[in-house]
Amino acid sequence: MTIWLTHFIENFGYLAIIFLIAVENIFPPIPSEVILTLAGFLVSGTKLTLIGVILASTLGSIIGAIILFSISRNLTLPRLEKLLETKLFKLLGFKKDDAQKAIDWFDKHGIGAIFYGRCIPVVRSLISIPAGIAQAGWTKFLVLTTLGSLVWNSVLVGLGHYMGKNWQVVVRIFDDYTIVIIILLLILFIYFGIKWYKTRIKK
């Protein structure tokens, strides 16, 4: 995979980076950690520049985020309420007003969720979905997505450039970080699942 990525980026430059990161934001077949650190390393032996790679990757992040955001915005409050009133969701303990509560929560905490979410593996690709469902404003969404992506991309590209031929060390470190995040998310999911069962379904 590394050889293919290297050839792809060397042949198509910034367009390859934009494309890869945009796809990774929608459906991450290749983690951004690999793409960004490799691109940072390739700055030394190609016509790519550090700033150019950071800007290209950030543009790719924005494109991918916009696609998910646009799709999820179609899931409006009335549609969400109708969905929660179906038999399956009622059996799971959901209520019609849960949709409005979720949107209200995101309206209150959405700024931090969008910005910091862009810097957390797994979450960074998914955060555009609740933002769209909550009908977050386009300006707020784009600004926070751009800033969060810029921070994440700058760190990884910079580390890849700094580490040079040892760029894969950074990937391994972030892989461990990602595993920790996934484990924490699973623990939270189980915890809230049990709590939800006791307060909604068991009753």
UniProtKB/TrEMBL annotation:
GO terms for cellular component: plasma membrane. This is Alkaline phosphatase. The chain crosses the membrane at residues 12-30, 50-71, 141-162, 177-197. It is a multi-pass membrane protein. Residues 30-161 form the VTT domain. Keywords: Cell membrane, Membrane, Transmembrane, Transmembrane helix. Belongs to the DedA family. The keyword DNA damage does not apply.
